[in-house]
Design brief:
The chain has 475 residues and is α/β, with parallel strands linked by helices. It contains 16 helices and 15 strands. It starts with a helix and ends in a 10-residue tail after the last helix.
């Protein structure tokens, strides 16, 4: 063959390749611009789309990290993803269904498959699809998986999952296997079980999505819980030992749920003790509820039951459970009734501990505080006595030596103050010591200077803020 022939053949090959490439490009572009129905017809081939069977489930969106992990795992178990895309839609309120996508006049179009990074309190977030359509093949059978959010105002957010398939027995088996994997992932809830959680909206400053926020509480050791002996005994018996005997209690027909009320002046260790319990109750999930989040109580309790054994903490419960004659309106009474109903609605064998905290126990509604079965034990957190003040001073001295005379002065001058006040006093005394760069011990003048700042320079407001209850103090 001559040179001209070789060149001509080469150019012909280039032309054919270019034409095929252009055809593929136009096919993909057309697929992306055509309604979803046409895309589904391409995937299912000669199948009659109107005769496809659709199975669906709705799951709570708060655990969508586990759903996404289950989907990802399912896709690597002999399933081929032929095509994946998002679905362009007007609203997320009602989700998307195959009945809409398969409508003859359907106008839904493919879109980019969008993901959100969902923080689950671990080193790496979970990448979750917002709205997704996956066209699948398994053992030469075709399937389509559609996932979309449902966000009706005033309702808990949901994730709708639908599978479109033909009617063969192998298709039914595939559907059963898929949804069994999803339900197992929800029941295990591995992304959140055993962690400290709260329900949130919006997003983190990191840009990661929220929904369920995982808290990393500071670690509190047993010896750092400095309370009167009677208080510690009540804590051990009603929380630690109670949880340890749950199986035995259940065997003899006794209830395994518990309601506790932590009360006392602010700054005396209620929150500190909750941090300790969150770490000490191995395997328990802790749910932290502030007063303004009681509107989400139903969602919290759904999570608490799913993630049993669990601890539900409601801080400053007096803000929503004050005595009915002191309430400002029907909204507060509605929130109180919601709390009472949720506590009453727990099964006797529910492995849930309620911990309610308040600085004003006298203002609580008697239907909550004086009703066994809701609150089984009230535990007082009083101002630290002499022994506790001694231990607190050592604990918060930062390892710097405290001479006996200095320790005695701290204990004598902090009578009727809170544990939080002693912590701040020791922090300032340590700071004064470090500024002097003297011997590795706290001197009496360090304590004097710290007390002067707290009691005198800061004024009465500073004393009240730091939990110094004494009416008059001298340095």
């Amino acid at each position: 063959m001559g040179t001209a022939g070789l060149v001509g053949t080469h150019l012909l090959a280039i032309g054919v390749g270019a034409a095929l490439g252009a055809l593929v490009f136009r096919t993909i572009a057309a697929r992306r611009q055509a309604p979803i129905r046409r895309l589904l017809q391409w995937h299912f081939g000669n199948a009659n789309l109107d005769r496809l069977l659709v199975n669906g489930r709705k799951f709570h969106a708060r655990i969508r990290a586990d759903l996404q992990r289950a989907i990802d795992q399912f896709f690597v178990s002999g399933v081929v993803v032929d095509y994946a895309c998002g679905v362009r839609q007007q609203t997320h309120f009602f989700g998307i269904s195959f009945s809409e996508l398969l409508a003859a006049n359907g106008a839904d179009l493919p879109a980019a498959l969008e993901y959100e990074d969902l923080d689950i309190g671990e080193e790496s977030p979970v990448r979750c699809a917002v709205t997704g359509l996956w066209l699948l093949t398994s053992q030469r059978r075709k399937y389509a998986l559609l996932v979309s959010p449902i966000g009706l105002p005033g309702e808990a957010p949901l994730i709708q999952m639908q599978l479109a398939r033909e009617g063969g027995p192998e298709d039914a088996e595939f559907s059963d296997r898929l949804f069994a994997a999803m339900e197992k992932a929800v029941q295990e809830a591995a992304s959140y079980r055993g962690k400290v959680l709260s329900l949130e909206t919006g997003s983190l400053y990191s840009g990661q999505a929220t929904g369920v926020t995982v808290h990393k509480l500071r670690s509190v050791r047993r010896e750092e819980v400095i309370l009167p002996a009677r208080t510690l005994e009540l804590l051990d018996r009603n929380v630690i030992r109670f949880v340890g005997h749950r199986e035995s209690l259940a065997r003899v027909g006794q209830t395994t749920k518990k309601g506790l009320l932590f009360y006392g002046p602010p700054g005396n260790g209620k929150t500190h003790t909750i941090h300790y319990l969150a770490g000490a109750l191995t395997g328990h999930t802790t749910l932290l509820i502030t007063a303004e989040q009681v509107a989400l109580l139903r969602e919290y309790m759904t999570l608490a039951r799913l993630l049993e054994p669990s601890v539900v903490v409601i801080e400053d419960v007096d803000l929503i459970a004050r005595e009915r004659t002191q309430m400002d309106g029907p909204c507060q009474e509605s929130m109180l009734n919601r709390l009472l109903n949720e506590m009453d609605g727990l099964k006797e064998q529910a492995e849930i501990v309620f911990i309610l905290t308040t600085n004003r126990p006298a203002e609580l509604e008697a239907a909550l505080a004086a009703r066994p079965g809701r609150v089984d034990q009230a535990i007082e957190f009083p101002s630290p006595d002499e022994e506790c003040r001694t231990r607190l001073a050592h604990l918060y001295s930062g390892g710097i030596r405290l001479p006996a005379d200095v320790l005695a002065a701290v204990v004598a001058r902090t009578e009727r103050t809170s544990a939080a006040f002693i912590k701040e006093l020791m922090r300032r005394a340590v700071l004064h010591h470090l500024e002097r760069s003297g011997e590795p011990l706290i001197e009496l003048r360090d304590v004097d200077d710290a007390l002067e700042e707290l009691f005198v320079s800061g004024g009465s407001l500073n004393r009240a803020l730091l939990g110094a209850n004494a009416a008059d103090r001298s340095c």
